[in-house]
Amino acid sequence: MQFNLGGRDRMSAGKIIDQLLFGDVLAPWRDLGADSDVLRDIPSMISFDERCFLYWLARNYYVGAGKIVDLGPLAGSSTRALAMGVLANPAISDTGSIIHSYDLWFFYTAWQKYFPGRELRRGADLLPYFLDNIADGRRIVEPHKGDLICQNWTGEPVEILFVDVVKTTELAYKVARTFFPCLIPGRSIVVQQDFISISEIDVPLTMGVFRDYFEYIDSPEGGTVAFLYTKPVPEEMLEMNFLDTLSMKDKLGIYDAAVARINKNDNYINTLMLAKAACLIRDGWGDDIFQAYGILKTYRRGIDKGEMIDAILSRWEDLFYVKLFNIMLGNQSVVDFFLPDLLKEENVAAVIGQQAFAGKRVVLYGISDVAKIVIPLVSEMAAKSISLCDGYPQKIGSFVLGRQVSSIDCFDPNSYDIMLVCTKSLQSESDIIEYVTERGHSTQKIMKVYSMVKENILRSKIRQCTPHTRDQSRAKEILLDMK
After folding, report:
1. Within its chain, how far is the Cα of 212 from the centroid?
2. Which of 46, 175, 243, 468 has the least CB density, counted as fewest CB within 10 Å?
């Protein structure tokens, strides 16, 4: 039976308040029966309910008016759900490339559990395993391996767009500019898998920017929220850097509106509130950081946590500490570096080398655990501009001294241009308190290496600011409260 979007859930019985329904039925994908068995055998980051939703969309909603685009399938659970749904769809007879799947298919050690029984090394090609996992539906799937930023689309209409790839602002722009113009008004569905997520904070912001062109529809349990594309997005909106046009007030309003649409699910609400805090931390300063602290303190304990959630929260909190620390010291600029795959030493070396070659005097603080790898990668000339503090040259060996890396004991702000601080050195409140109060220095600039799992992109953001004494006092109060 083919369904179209028709009724509206005005009784707010589903996941989303005031959502469009398929026909007049709430969550029809939960009545798949034996058909759901084909969706259970691939380890996945998405929930079983989300897989059933994708299968049902492809079987009961898809009519072949456009292609199906599958962004970020990794091991293939989303692809398999879509493919098996299409193959079970009596309205579809085409056996060509109906589904187009895009992924790096690059192995990170954190993904081992999604490839059980495989002995894989970092960087291994995952495409062959993906193809094995979708073997039953392979004939209608066309894989596109590589960085999505560098990929193109044919311009053909897209009827279903599944998005699980917006890990950076650049990817938010890429997805919107590449695929939104190909959506079919009144027909196409966009499935934003990371809408309710602590890490992918640009997803709700993107849908908030384009709220006049989409409507919320009945959505599965998990991070997914689905939307009907209702009318064409103006070309000029897509051409601009639409997220950069948002003020902090705009961003917070978008998050508040998203929270208001969640129907009585504390875990989803808490997650979106923590994402709001992450937005304040990433894009804010001063009062924004103080507001983020209030949200973190209120909502952090109310979320269903696992190893991955804890890691994401810890990374946002690391950046929170650094910004708070800089406000307290009265610094006028902060550079946040987002590095892929935790702390990638060659990128740290590139950052250090770039600054040193530019004539900047660089000090490394608390970075002994990576210095053994970083320093040899920096050229001899650049190394002359680098110093280590707290006696680290003695700790990491003569080869570092052989690179003419010096040691400093004082924190005179005139003795260096940039201090690069390792995440681990500021991982606790007591570390920060000790570092600030007992050493008594007044730095002018600090560079922070902040670890976050991203695609292979090194992205920097420079925040110019003029802190007020009031902000510095408030920052100190918060640090002491944390202690």
Report:
1. 24
2. 468
